[in-house]
Amino acid sequence: MKPTRRPLAGLAALLLTTQVQAADGQTIYTQGGANPAAMACGTCHGADGMGMAAAGFPRLAGIDAGYMRKQLADFRSGTRANPIMQPIA
User: Fold this and answer.
1) What is the mean pLDDT of the chain?
2) Phi, psi for residue 28 in degrees, rounded to 5
3) Which of 10, 16, 35 is nearest to 88 (CA)?
4) Among 16, 35, 48, 71, which residue's Cβ finds the most Cβ atoms within 10 Å?
5) Separation of alpha carbons 34 and 24, rounded Å
């Protein structure tokens, strides 16, 4: 039986998509997003992601990606209220 290349193509596409998303996240963290209100995350949360507790900015380093997505979605929808994060999200 001749092996199919489709599973490998699917895996390659998944890996490329994951790498692009990671690169996009890194760019947003260091440079900000396309929306002018979406400034770089590191501005408030620190270049190392450890936050700035004295200013009220929490640590982002080491937080689960799924949790982070949910929090950003909640800021965007208004489910989680924060006057700083809502316009950014």
Assistant:
1) 79
2) -60, -40
3) 35
4) 71
5) 11
